[in-house]
Design brief:
With 292 residues, this protein is mainly beta. It has one domain: Jelly Rolls (Sandwich). 5% of the residues lie in helices and 47% in strands. Strands 3, 4, 5, 6, 7, 9, 14, 15, 16 and 19 form a 10-stranded antiparallel β-sheet that branches. Strands 8, 10, 11, 12, 13, 17 and 18 form a 7-stranded antiparallel β-sheet that branches. Strand 11 and strand 12 form a beta hairpin. The longest helix has 15 residues. The two termini are 34 Å apart.
């Protein structure tokens, strides 16, 4: 059975994560099909049992050479309030080794009024499960005919005080497949090493960015902005901004030849630590800005 390249991402990320005692990460890997002939389990939405009226809960299925830096402020198409979009999907154990196996008990609740900046945030949470497993959500965006010349991923993040040190890692990514190549743009806030890492889609490994992670203060909204672009057949991580502090990294990876059709996605993942400590993180004002 031929593997979808996104399964390989899951496998490589998980192996690297376990080797360095970090959470199994997506590192990319948004797809409607993680393995040839095996469609992923789409997320389903049901009314949440919540004190926040109008919330929606989404649960995972129980079934199985550097390029020239881009501008720090891309112009073009804007997709805003992605945390409120319908169509978020998950894939059971896709955050685990090989994209299979028992995953954690993880969920997405939309329409949270507090904590929120916009009045409608999303709660990504994991209730427990096997150590180092990850709860991964992704959403399909309209496809693009050309590689992005500029891509910016923004969101606000809030961690309640009781969960401030619970994550093993928090990950987010955007991914584009076009012209037979997959361009993966992924960041991992790795609590195990207190560092930010980027994903190498070709070698299937998380790699150091040289940027230390200052763990997010509790009960506070933190704004994160990541800038990327494609340069020929390279996927470039340009910079990361956390709470107004920008670091230029200019890390380029060769795009991976996949031979698949057009796709453009973004994702978010919460990873369990060695003791499978449950936790919640809230995301608001999630936005993609891009030009192709």
């Amino acid at each position: 059975m031929d593997l979808n390249p996104k399964v390989l991402v899951k496998f490589g990320a998980a192996v690297a994560a376990i080797a360095s005692v970090v959470g199994c990460g997506s590192g990319g890997g948004a797809s409607k099909s993680f393995m040839a002939g095996m469609p992923s389990s789409s997320a389903t939405s049901t009314p949440a049992a919540s004190s926040n009226p109008g919330t929606t809960t989404t649960s995972q299925s129980s079934s199985p050479a550097s390029a020239t830096p881009a501008s720090s402020l891309p112009t073009g198409t804007v997709i805003a309030n992605i945390q409120n979009q319908s169509g978020w999907q998950t894939c059971g154990g896709c955050g685990n080794v090989g994209g299979t196996g028992q995953g954690p008990d993880y969920h997405l609740t939309q329409g949270i009024s507090s904590p929120s900046l916009s009045g409608s945030s999303a709660d990504f949470y994991v209730n427990g499960g096997p150590a180092y497993t990850g709860g991964y959500y992704f959403i399909e965006q309209p496809t693009l005919p050309n590689p992005v010349t500029n891509l910016q991923y923004d969101f606000d993040l809030y961690i309640p005080a009781q969960y401030v040190d619970a994550p093993q890692a928090i990950e987010f990514e955007a991914q584009q497949t076009v012209n037979g190549n997959t361009y993966n743009y992924a960041w991992q806030a790795d609590y195990a090493s207190n560092s930010w890492r980027v994903f190498n889609y070709t070698s299937k490994n998380w790699e150091p960015s040289g940027l230390p992670l200052q763990r997010f203060a509790p009960n506070t909204w933190h704004h994160i902005t990541a800038v990327f672009h494609a340069a020929g057949t390279q996927a470039v991580h340009d910079s990361l901004t956390v709470d107004g502090q920008t670091t230029t990294v200019n890390i380029a990876h060769q795009a991976t030849q996949t031979g698949t059709g057009l796709e453009f996605t973004n994702g978010f993942q919460v990873d369990l630590n060695s003791t499978s400590t449950p936790y919640h993180v809230y995301v608001d004002n999630m936005k993609l800005t891009f030009a192709d």
